[in-house]
Amino acid sequence: xxxxxLSVFMENRPGRLYKLxxxxxxxxxxxxxxxxxxxxxxxxxxxIARDNERAYEILKNEGFTVGITELIGxxxxxKPNALAEVIALIEAANIxxxxxxxxxxxxxxxxxxxxxxxxxxxxxxxLTEKGIKLLSEKIL
Amino acid sequence: xxxxxxxxxxxxxxxxxxxEFENLQSERLRKTVELVYNxxxxxxxxxxxxxxxPSDIRSVADLQKLPFTVKxxxxxxYPFGFYSAPARDIVEVHASSGTTGKLTVVGYTQNxxxxxxxxxxxxxxxxxxxxxxxxxxxxxxxLFTGGLGAHYGAQQIGASTVPASAxxxxxxxxxxxxxxxxHLCCTPSYAIFLGTEIEKAGMNIxxxxxxxxxxxxxxxxxxxxxxxxxxxxxxxxxxxxxxxISGPGVAMECxxxxxxxxxxxxxxxxxxxxxxxxxxxxxSEGELVFTTITKTGQPLIRYRTRDLCxxxxxxxxxxxxxxxxxxxxxxxxxxxxIRGVNVFPSQIEAAIMNVAGVSPHYMIYVDRINNLDVIExxxxxxxxxxxxxxxxxxxxxxxxxxxxxSYIGLSAKIKLCESGSIRRSEGKAVRVVDRRE
Lengths: 140, 437
Fold this sequence. Notes:
The structure holds 2 protein chains of 2 kinds. Chain A contains 4 helices and 7 strands, in the order βαββαβαββαβ. Chain A is α+β, with helices and mostly antiparallel strands. Chain A folds into 2 domains: 2-69, VC0802-like (2-Layer Sandwich), CATH 3.30.2130.10; 71-134, ACT domain (Alpha-Beta Plaits), CATH 3.30.70.260. The mean pLDDT of chain A is 89. By secondary structure, chain B is α/β, with parallel strands linked by helices. Chain B has 2 domains: 11-16 and 93-331, ANL, N-terminal domain (Rossmann fold); 336-434, GMP Synthetase, Chain A, domain 3, CATH 3.30.300.30. Helix content of chain B is 31%, strand content 25%. Chain B has 11 helices and 21 strands. In chain B, α6 links the parallel β3 (134-137) and β4.
């Protein structure tokens, strides 16, 4: 029940993000999500593509430092406090959330949340028990 | 698991006893001193200045009486002033670039080329090169001695020699694979580059026949060896040489991979303190000095290499008895003095290679900011890393900082770079940029 995400190391200088997005774009790879963690010197670009495996191959061949990570994905109603309720469950179990981002697909009344936590197995168990709707790659 | 079957090319020489070596060296030294005194003006002037006659040099024990020769002497005599042979007897001329100033020119007689081929052959035998081998030489061919040195050695053994020379990575890889090269000779940094390009070129190392190689012309660390051996599935050995003395083959590492055997019947090594110029005993670190005792074109007496290392005597587990030199720690003129501390790029490299998650590709920048020396090191992140958490990357950076600090006693600013972003060299790697005024 995990969602695969690609992450790419990138130096924090002009032109780098274009190189990445163009490398994928010219091969017809479509992004589903995209998020960037940035520091002074470098950034980590995290994304899910329509075809993760091809995206991975393309970036490897272009010489990017790229890896695949598995995240927990959940679907919540697109309304106030929905996110807070999910986070409360994880935090109540004393599991640290390492990062999280959300996205909304058009024509849906729900928001999707992706997160990386310290203890994936335990977090998944808790969320399932509480009846939270989990995302799989297919639902994306 | 090693596929190299090494052997001793000239056991009747390479396994002599210490006293046999000393007798042979003494006899050859006497002849050489006589030759240079009578035929090379700068040497006659140097010896006259010390009130030395050839007859004062009776054995290797007298070597210390002789004055040193430095690169500057050779440049002063540019181009052919250091010949001890008539120009018509010179059959090949090499020149080393050096990072500054004039070329250093070296003339070889046929005898000298034969000596060179002999020592290069002994060296390649240490990497298991035989008549059945195919030796791919990716050193540059030309004034630089790397290409022809490896070439002469491989030919003397009777191996098939492929003079690929440097450059054009895809062609190199194609030749290596399609010709079934068993041995590769080039600079270690270029070999690592070739190794990392195999996959990108859509090739598979399993389709190559490489088993060993001789890598030199720049100092490299044991960690770099591990990387090279892993990438190319070979035994990677260090070959040492300098054009002034002879090209590659002056010394070479045997399969014990612990020090390089100096071809002492041709070159007498000494270690001196680079400041006091006093000879140091075996085991002490200092500057390596060579005296050639069989060359006739341009013999050199106590030539200061500027390379820093140690010498050890005693029988090696491989059976050879020749003196071994440690890996070159750096050149006394490569040494950076940073905030008063002596720093060698090789120390920084060793530190970097201790950290998982970074590659052996790096660049050292030295600046002076507000009268303070500052080192910044750009290092490529390893290509096989999964760079997902910021904290993982930060901790790699932190580890590099800690390692470097423990190796050189100074802190350096570390910048992690994308893999492939640091320029690759096809010859000697340029890894230090000193921007201080």
